[in-house]
Specification:
Layout (H helix, E strand, L loop, with lengths): L9 H20 L11 H12 L9 H4 L2 H16 L1 H11 L7 H9 L4 H29 L6 H16 L18 H16 L1 H7 L8 H25 L10 H13 L16 H13 L12 H15 L5 E3 L2 E3 L1 H28 L11 H13 L14 H16 L1 H9 L18
Antiparallel strand pairs: 1-2
Length: 444
């Protein structure tokens, strides 16, 4: 087994782990007893990709099309994708005493530890911590339900939505997502809390809940950037939508709760308590920006992440202040880290532009009544897929076969990361000992 290249390259192991589980998920969903009617395999593959890549976009009504067994499979696929399939693999392998090939390298970089024994213990803690948080969230959601039917039905609903929220998937067992619970304080805040915790990542949450008096630079950047984006999004969306008809008969408290939820969910979660198709174009554009940023490194969400944004912003401030370095309290950020942050953002925005362009071409004939926001609605869909968000203006079910393929590819790239995919396919960059004369280029 050690002779297979896939096991010697951690990036390829990540890529093919997700790919294999997407295909297996689609095959499982195609088995008898999983759906209430015949469903094209393309839609099952789309659903499996969306679940494994914790996106939430779907061409099917999950609540109506899938049986109980189908919903269980979707939930398992979400859990695998949220934990990171490779993390689950390494957890199982380390439990049995060995790591395949160079997968140790991936585990070491993922959890920031070099000891094989400690890697196993940390990965075990990640898995246990995930299940504890999701179980606690499920309990809160269960007791937050305004009306109860049977225990197993309500418990299943609560667990499914807890897993979906923590993994930032956005799948719901309601046809209108969570719009029916827009005024429910317990359900809204439980879902938002799970989204934020999942987006933080286990390492950050472990540090925040520890008794440390000083936090790492990474944790500080993640926490304050997330806080700024949530509160900033709440304020901006409030200014843009407060006098709109999207809130219906909701009072001030209901409007504020919906606005806060709308600010949190573009951070790659995909749940909605408002009809996204009724938002103004200005709000859709702003949400596109939030979806591009996404969650944080090590979390369950997508996007180009909060820390690259924070680093580039701080570098811009230092340039405007005339400083040649970025200093935060007792830390200096290296130029190599700044360069990587810029590169990650650039590549991500480039792929988002290409995906949007391709979808604009493939869906140019989409009728206006199905896509009231025109080109902006299509770009919104493409960015939602790449950011593994799952929000939609309602066009997902109407896109063409080519459009579905574009969205599937975008979700896959968005989950594993553009750079991971590029290195997995093309290999690592080769270094050279030859150095030429340094060229001077004007930059404006």
């Amino acid at each position: 087994m050690r002779d297979f290249k896939i096991f010697k390259d951690p990036l390829r192991l990540v890529t093919f782990s997700f790919l294999i589980n997407i295909i297996l998920g689609a095959l499982l969903l195609s088995l008898p007893g999983m759906t209430t009617r015949n469903v094209p395999f393309t839609d099952l593959l789309f659903t499996s990709t969306s679940a494994v890549c914790v996106t939430g976009l779907t061409t099917l009504d999950i609540s109506q099309v899938f049986t109980v067994w189908g919903k269980i499979v979707v939930c398992i696929l979400i859990q695998l994708g949220g934990l990171g399939i490779i993390t689950l693999w390494l957890f199982l392998l380390s439990t049995f005493g060995s790591l395949i090939g160079n997968a140790y390298t991936l585990a070491s970089s993922t959890v920031g530890e070099r000891s094989v024994n400690r890697i196993g213990r940390i990965l075990m803690s990640v898995a246990y911590g995930t299940f504890i948080i999701e179980s606690f969230g499920a309990v809160l959601l269960y007791f937050g339900l305004p009306e109860h039917t049977t225990f197993w039905n309500d418990a299943g609903w609560a667990l499914f939505h807890s897993v979906s929220a923590f993994c930032n998937a956005g799948f719901s067992l309601q046809s209108d997502n969570l719009m029916g619970y827009g005024d429910n304080f317990v359900i809204n805040f439980t879902i938002m809390l799970l989204i934020i915790i999942g987006g933080f990542g286990y390492g950050v949450m472990a540090e925040l809940t520890s008794l440390k008096k000083r936090f790492s630079l990474h944790t500080l950047l993640v926490f304050f950037t997330t806080l700024f984006l949530v509160m900033g999004g709440f304020f901006v969306l409030g200014v843009l939508e407060w006098d709109g008809s999207i809130f219906g008969n909701a009072g001030i408290g209901g409007r504020l709760l919906r606005l806060l939820f709308l600010s949190v969910t573009p951070r790659t979660a995909g749940f909605n308590t408002l009809d996204i198709s009724m938002l103004r174009d200005s709000s859709l554009f702003f949400i596109i920006l939030l979806m591009l940023i996404g969650a944080s490194p090590g979390g369950t969400g997508g996007g180009f992440k909060t820390t690259p944004l924070a680093i580039v912003f701080l570098r811009l401030i230092s340039i405007l202040s005339g400083r040649r370095y970025v200093r935060i309290q007792r830390w200096d950020i290296e130029d190599e880290t700044i360069f990587k942050a810029v590169w990650i953002i650039f590549v991500y925005l480039l792929i988002a532009a290409v995906a949007s362009l391709l979808l604009l071409i493939s869906e140019s004939d989409l009728p206006r009544e199905l896509n009231p926001h025109g080109a902006l609605g299509i770009i919104f869909e493409a960015v939602s897929a790449l950011g593994t968000v799952g929000l939609s203006t309602g066009i997902t079910s109407y896109v063409s076969f080519i459009g579905k393929c574009i969205l599937i590819f975008a979700m896959f790239i968005g989950r594993i990361g553009p750079l991971t995919f590029a290195f997995a396919i093309g290999g690592r960059a080769q270094t050279s000992s030859v150095k030429f004369v340094e060229g001077k280029v004007g930059l404006g």
